[in-house]
Amino acid sequence: MQEALPYSSRTAWPPASTSGHRVVDPVSSSTATTIGELVRENPVLVLGRRGCCMCHVVKRLLLGLGVNPAVCEIDGGDEEVTRVTAGLGGAAAEGQLPAVFIGGRLVGGLDRLVAVHISGELVPILKEAGALWL
Length: 134
Known about the structure:
This is Monothiol glutaredoxin-S9. By secondary structure, the chain is α/β, with parallel strands linked by helices. The protein has a single domain, classed as Glutaredoxin. The protein has seven helices and five strands; from the N terminus they run H-E-H-E-H-E-H-H-E-E-H-H. The chain has helices at residues 16-19, 31-41, 53-64, 78-85, 90-93, 110-118, 122-129; strands at residues 21-24, 44-49, 70-74, 99-102, 105-108. The protein has a five-stranded mixed beta sheet, with helices on both faces. The N and C termini lie far apart (37 Å).
């Protein structure tokens, strides 16, 4: 049985080493470059706030399609989110999270991702980025 963590705990849960999640510390000066590297290195990256319900919906949609996205969670307030996402462009630059990057390009937030999925364009985009094989 797993041990419950208190809400005020600053420990990332689940641990980043086992879940593919990465919690970004907004105090670090190299956070923006780290996120930029993650965008370039991963076919699909979900950038969001820690514990955000919309990020959970984005992850569930992508997992339902057979994509295992890299997830980067920002742990901080609005000022920190704006500072961290300033160099990323688009809605992410304005601090609007979640932000979904596919193939190194910003697709948008939850609303844009669902619109692309409903229009039937999401699967070809994921295949082109190398996130889907079939």
